[in-house]
Amino acid sequence: MGSLTISPIHAFSDNYIWLIHDEREAYVVDPGDAVPVLATLEQSQLTLSGILITHHHYDHTGGVAQLKNSTGCETWGPENSPGGPYDHTLHEGADVNVLGVEFSVLAVPGHTLDHIAFYSESEEVIFCGDTLFVGGCGRVFEGSPPQMRQSLEKLRQLPPQTRIFCAHEYTLANLHFARLVEPSNQRLEAFLEHCEQRRRDSLPTVPSLLGAECEYNPFLRWDSPAVRATLKERGRLDDDTYDAVFTAVREWKNQA
Ligand code: ZN
Ligand code: FE
């Protein structure tokens, strides 16, 4: 584990704005609202140096202009983004130095076409916005389900100890849905219980570990025979491809 401190700033009803700092300087990821960020910076006596943006949705970018105006910080975000322009535009393979730690940019289109993620191998963390959630994944608004699956496949290949910092607390709803998909997944039951306790204690369920996600998150389990069996039983699958499995799970969740 690395040298950066990462903590959540709560925004709206269920957004997490991630604060990255070294006790002096700070970066924030996806500040949808400037107000709670400014309050936290003041309280913790931190100087905002930069803003990282994963995609253009307003709940992730709504605070950028105000934060930039009041702190003079720089912004990093996806190229060809309706949310831009940013001071630094990023594409797959680009590097961003955050307080001495190297993050590499992964293109993860699907939820939106401009969606990127920030991955640090040394810190074993990824900021993945609305692509992968704890127990779930983002809705496919702009891309196609196969494209989203490809993006998730890219994330699935990262080391299992990678901590998943997503932008929403959707975990309990996601895990309740996951249970419909895999009623006899014991790993899922245990994790749901753990997360219910965290929420009763008003604690975030984010971050989770990628290796664990692969065991209970139905949106990373397109190759699981159990997932396929449920979909077949429910008449939701007529094709055996990974894309068909993923698409069927995504469509089911949209309706659930
Ligand atoms: Zn979004
Ligand atoms: Fe969002």
Question: How would you explain this protein's 3D organization?
Answer:
The chain has 256 residues and is of the alpha/beta class. It has a domain at 5-170 and 203-212: Metallo-beta-lactamase, Chain A. Helix content is 36%, strand content 25%. The chain is built from 9 helices and 14 strands. The strands form 3 sheets. Strands 1-2-3-4-5-6 form a 6-stranded mixed sheet, covered by helices on one side. Strands 7-8-9-10-13-14 form a 6-stranded mixed sheet. The protein has a two-stranded antiparallel sheet with strand order 11-12. A hairpin with a 2-residue loop joins β7 (95-98) and β8 (101-107). α5 packs antiparallel against α6. The chain is globular and about 55 Å long. The termini are far apart. The site of zinc ion (ZN) has 4 residues, from loops.
Write the layout of secondary structure elements.
Blueprint: E1 5-11, E2 15-21, E3 25-29, H1 34-44, E4 47-52, H2 58-61, H3 64-71, E5 74-78, E6 88-90, E7 95-98, E8 101-107, E9 116-120, E10 125-129, E11 132-133, E12 136-137, H4 145-156, E13 163-166, H5 171-181, H6 186-200, E14 208-209, H7 210-216, H8 225-233, H9 242-255
Helix pairs in contact: 5-6
Bound molecules: zinc ion (ZN) and fe (iii) ion (FE).
